[in-house]
Amino acid sequence: MKINKLYSIVLVLSIILGSQTVRAQDILDEYLTMAAENSPLLKARFNDYLAALETVPQVGALPDPQLAFGYFIQPIQTGVGPQEFRISATQMFPWFGTLNARENVAIQSAKAKYELFEESKAKLFDKVRGTYYSLYFNQKAVSILIENIEILQRFQKLALIKVETGKVSAVDEFRIEMEMGDLENQLALLRDNRQYLLVAFNNLLNTELAGVSFPDTLWDTASDLSRQAILDSIRMGNHQLLGLELQREALNYKQEVAKKSGKPDFSLGLDYIVVGRGENNLSGQDAFMFPRIGITIPLYRNKYRSMIKEAAYKETAKAFEKKNKMNMLETLFEKSWNELQDAERRIVLYHQQQDLANRSINLLEVEYATADKNFEEVLRMERKQLFYSLELERARVDKQAAVSFLNYLMGK
Q1: Which CATH number goes with the domain that contains 245?
Q2: DSSP 372
């Protein structure tokens, strides 16, 4: 129960600190919270972190003391009486600073586990946001197709009237039916895809939602950071980089542990000997021997030198691995940044084009009803109006998907 409460507190704090200030995203924030609370992967990562924390007191503790009992089968005679049995207690002490170095290794390793948890959470949030945007686009595409089918139905009524009066050929009606058939096929495909997306969204949230809530128009937000500021934030806050750095630091402390392992260990002991009755049935006297001091001498130096080199090579490998990861992240950043800029341009363009296409459709509808306007131009403009409407929504989704991925790269 305490672990679940701690897990919930960590999630709530991280979501609050990383949430956007735009109120329109409150719906999505609720889904992100639900995904974080229900995710079995995040719970597994968090328990791995808690388990790693438990290793700190283990490696930082002294070795268990040794207690020995010895009974003299043939008692050793002394001046005060025969020695009957011996009780010995011994405590080993590693070289100064060894326990602290071991604790540092465990602490840095636990921190790396926590960064793995944060990385998994950031990746989960990006997937949830991406699937949510896909569901939004699916819903808007269905609405746009239905609107275009209704536009074609209006033209179909006009075409029927003109066919009956002999002003146009029945070919106009056939063209409309063919166009409507294509749109209905696209509509059926979108509805099939919606089921797949809804299942994927429910699996990310690890729950069963009958439906998903969307805004009328997807919010249009972007990071308020500059290009260089985002790149700097990735270098400083990306959880993969932070995890690799913590692993490198743990290996650095491991070198220290290896060096101190090559130093002597000390032991302090206490012997208690029980002496029996001596000659003439006189009472014996217990004898103490204190202190007893021991030392372990690490003679085989090659072993310890190899341990130090092993940790040093691994630390160097982690440093190169971090550099390689940074190069990959910079490439991903450039790709996402370009996608963000392209989406912003497309939003402006398709918004203008959609407005012009809608006005053109209205004019063509009047002209077709009142004059012998070529129906080819009507269909061509209808296709453009459909294309611009869909592309405008796709650009909005692409922009928010790019913003989401940049936030993921920054560790948000």
Answers
A1: 1.20.1600.10
A2: -
